[in-house]
Write a sequence for this structure.
């Protein structure tokens, strides 16, 4: 981030106190930080606190003639390399989605020609409200980047999604943005699989796993931002697709394989999906009833197609084929053996034991295993794992690394 300028808009919410720590984190990484405080934000943090940490004047008033002559909202918005909104309240999201501009923060958001990264923070019911979700979809479609929100206890006493991402997570997301070469994969085609598959027992029951799809979606988004024409083949998940990605929704392993083969040729394929290894031999046409005093039905399973191994043997095999290994013990050893068994070039291993919180969480600790050895990455936001992997893929496909 050294030499970069971040314009931080602090919205009015209790999470605003975290933004003071965010200023410190950004400056520790070398960024210059300018701050806009909304009127509501001043109820939670003071201009003096923000100014002292940023080492810069804090901006508040759209109609301050002095500020407008020194640094008008147009110049302020365009002199930054990235605009970060933290906390991004429901009000600020709605204003940007609707094109409203009645204060310095919202006017700056409309006037900027730079990317915007939002860290939402609000009550769980506000986050889940159809109007807010509609605004979220609109903003993502227009290229606004997001980090969080996280799930947990809230100041209002409720629990659920809506907590602002932690300052370190937001800092990681900013670093990932600055470290992404938006043209590194221009002209190349990427294929990504994500999420679980669901294998039906009957019309209302299925076999599946706990995959959230977050890591696969983050990787697809990173590849698209690096310039790759990206196809995302996704099992059933509740995630908005990244901007610029072509989404193909599937349910079963056989559907996922068919969608992958139809998407070839590709320069790189990243298979993050947690595909069910087995499926019921016969899926009942009607709901299987539990009869009184009857024994439990016998469930006969058959093996599903191995998507990663099939792509490795395919006549149109991707130039670079990457698998994922979700393990609970001997993580690196099992993943290295899987790379050889499946015939892929790289494999990304992670520990998904229950205590790690990786399944469904927003952070990950991975090991990248190639023919040259193992790279163990530190714990990162899943978004940053995606950015790092995209950068490594670009290096490999440009012939700079194996």
């Amino acid at each position: 981030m050294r030499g970069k300028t971040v314009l931080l808009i602090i919205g009015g919410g209790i999470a605003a106190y975290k933004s003071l720590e965010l200023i410190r984190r950004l400056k520790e990484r070398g960024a210059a930080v300018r701050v806009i405080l909304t009127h509501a934000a001043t109820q939670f943090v003071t201009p003096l606190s923000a100014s002292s940490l940023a080492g810069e004047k804090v901006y508040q008033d759209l109609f301050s003639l002095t500020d407008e002559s020194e640094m008008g909202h147009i110049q302020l918005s365009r002199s930054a390399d990235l605009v970060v909104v933290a906390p991004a309240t429901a009000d600020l999201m709605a204003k940007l989605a609707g094109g409203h501009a009645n204060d310095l923060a919202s006017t700056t958001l409309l006037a900027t020609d730079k990317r915007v990264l939002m860290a939402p923070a609000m009550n769980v019911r506000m986050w889940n409200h159809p109007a807010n979700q509609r605004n979220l979809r609109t903003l993502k479609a227009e290229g606004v980047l997001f980090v969080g929100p996280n799930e947990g206890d809230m100041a209002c006493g409720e629990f659920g999604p809506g907590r602002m991402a932690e300052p370190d997570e937001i800092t990681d997301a900013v670093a990932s943005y600055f470290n992404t070469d938006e043209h590194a994969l221009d002209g190349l085609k990427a294929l990504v699989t994500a999420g679980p598959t669901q294998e039906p027992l009957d019309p209302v029951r299925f076999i599946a796993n706990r995959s959230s799809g977050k890591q696969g979606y983050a990787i697809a988004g990173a590849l698209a931002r690096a310039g790759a024409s990206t196809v995302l083949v996704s099992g059933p998940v509740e995630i908005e697709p990244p901007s610029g990605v072509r989404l193909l929704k599937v349910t079963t392993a056989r559907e996922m394989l068919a969608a992958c083969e139809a998407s070839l040729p590709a320069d790189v394929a990243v298979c993050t999906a947690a595909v069910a290894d087995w499926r019921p031999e016969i899926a009942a046409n009607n709901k299987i009833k539990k009869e009184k005093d009857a024994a439990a039905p016998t469930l006969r399973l058959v093996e599903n197609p191995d998507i990663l191994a099939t792509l490795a043997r395919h006549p149109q095999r991707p130039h670079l084929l990457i698998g994922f290994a979700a393990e609970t013990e001997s993580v690196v050893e099992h993943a290295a053996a899987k790379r050889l068994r499946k015939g892929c070039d790289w494999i990304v291993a992670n520990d998904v034991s229950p205590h790690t919180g990786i399944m469904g969480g927003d952070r990950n600790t991975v090991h990248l295993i190639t023919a040259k050895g193992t790279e163990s990455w530190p714990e990162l936001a899943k978004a940053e794992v995606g950015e790092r992997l995209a950068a490594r893929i670009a290096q490999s496909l440009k012939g700079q690394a194996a």
